[in-house]
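Example: Cytosolic oligopeptidase A.
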Amino acid sequence: YARQDQKIRVYDDAGWHISIRNKCTITSSKPLSALIFNFQQPLDDQPSLLSFKEVGVLFQRFGHALRHLLTKANYSEVAGLSNVEWDAAEVCGQVMTHWLYDPHTIQAISGHHSTGETLPEDIVKNLQNIRGHMAGLNLCKELYLSRLDLELHSKKTFWRDIVQELYPKYHAFSFDKYDSHPLSFTKIFSEEWGAAYYCHLWSKM
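Written out as structure tokens, the predicted fold is:
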């Protein structure tokens, strides 16, 4: 859970899968992993409730855990998530996320925390429709960020010049000269997705 002064809740989609031990048949080692989240703490008599977005993060990270734990590889160097090509790094997580949008899945995992009443069909339908809302704009944005990531890691050109060249190709509106969004593109600079951001979109296919 998020804890004051210890584990601050910065993002509502924060979640991690940690590979603790890989499977290895030579040493009879069984795979071990952990899921770490940043959900809200229970409040008074109310349990910790998750938003639909947080459930999506849970499903995606659980997909990573399944890939690590159910591996059929015999050697630890290639078991689970080790040495997986970037093109396939997010496949299992995306498969689990697809299941989340199935109406039967939504109703099976949801309900009122005190009465147990399932979600009405109209709310389930709305949750399904969320995925298609502004889908074209979101796709263009992800294509742009994926291309931007690759360009920034393969050229010595100043970042603003790269942005000014790419931005009009993926957006219907003009680029604001004061826009410095690449400077906050933390996934490719401070996380492991440098020159690999495209795999999020690629894995969905």
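The radius of gyration is 20 Å.
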